[in-house]
Amino acid sequence: MPGPQLQALRRAVVPAPGPVRPLALATFTSRVGRGLFYTVLPLYLTRSVDLPASRVALGLTLASLVGLLAGIPAGHLADRLGPRGVRAVVRAAEALLLCGYTLVGNFAAFLVVACLVTFFESAGLAAEGALIAGSVPTEHRVRTRAYLRSVTNAAWSLGALLAGAALLRDTRTAYVLVMLGAAACYLASALATLRVPAVPPVPRKQDGPRRVALRDRPYAALTLLNGVLGMNLGLFTVALPLFIAARTNAPVALYSLLALINTVAATVFQVRASRGTDTVAGAASAQSRSGLLLAACCILFAAADGRSAWVAGAFLIAGCAVHVAGELLQAAGSWGLSFELAPEDAVGQYQGLYGMGRDLGQILTPVVATGALVDGGGTGALLLGGVFLAAGLAVPPTARWAERSRATAASVPAAPGTALP
């Protein structure tokens, strides 16, 4: 590759010196660890710890529910103490807790470790959002988040690829080594976080409620709508492969190609998809278009129900292409709305609330999306598409409601204890 092209590629992949570079390193190391960990966890628990698959599913679901409790408190702590220290401590705690999986011998121990890991994972994401918001100028927040998501996709894929060696060996020793490797990655992420310039804590306002995010009704509504649109991830990763196997004549191996298309597109085009989403109106428009695209992908998936291998394969590939476009717009819009509508003195708390909606959507997706596609077939897919469409269309008016509530609060002095409408 010629020198100028190589330099251009390097500038596109490696950020310029500044806070984004250590943020990228911290993101990359933690997501490699996550890819390692989540790839082997189900098989480690079922084949090495000898837990039934149903108990593993139950434990992970309960742990996810516990994780919902972490976002707002961790975000509030990041606001008051500074997000860099909170994120570093949380990542180090995750490293230690991941080692606890190597000592698990029964369901009770597994449940305790899983709940702690998920709690600190959710706390880390809330602190991470506050750290990004405080580390880069306002106009660069969405683009930075988009770049870090591309880093996330690449790192997760690398971690999953490396974990494949343990899956081939299928021994307890191999699984334990992967767990310890994941813990080392989280520790490296904690150390990389300390290289990010410190973000000063934000003093708490003397008047008004402490948990302002929970009282912000339009922001909470946008959080729930984003959670619905965010179900597209579980639709693709959980429901779609089961749908291919149960409801179409396409080979199950086709899902590997679809996953590759999704991963490459999400890694390459996320930054481009984020253009214009650094305003409330632009972000709301992106999520509205996301709802339309996700509805369209559900129509294409429905068309594959019961079709021959070639016809079903064509509809599935087309649906995958439309899906990833909707996924990219949903993510980009979520960052613009969550950052632009959060007050500067409570960014972490608001990021924690927004993360709760995302996590709740992911908890519900396996039941909702799988039930729709696998049990309902084409009809269920169309109904799910209608849900995506309704959620997307509801975002712009809800975002305008949020902007009006802020304009009203800014123009009228609030009495102590008064919340945003």
Proportion in β-strands: under 5%
Low-confidence stretches: 414-421
What is the straight-line distance between the termini? Answer: 57 Å
The value of Rg in angstroms is 21 Å
The helix-and-strand class reads: mainly alpha
What would you give as the CATH superfamily of the largest domain? Answer: MFS general substrate transporter like domains
Whole-number count of domains: 2
Number of strands: 0
Structural account:
This protein is an all-alpha fold. The protein folds into 2 domains: 17-193, MFS general substrate transporter like domains (Growth Hormone, Chain: A); 212-411, Up-down Bundle (Growth Hormone, Chain: A). Helix content is 80%, strand content 0%. It is built from 16 helices and no strands. The chain has helices at 3-13, 20-48, 53-67, 71-81, 83-100, 107-135, 141-169, 172-193, 212-215, 217-229, 232-247, 254-273, 280-303, 309-340, 347-375, 377-411. Helix 4 crosses helix 5, helix 10 packs antiparallel against helix 14 and helix 13 (280-303) runs antiparallel to helix 16 (377-411). It is globular, with a radius of gyration of 21 Å.
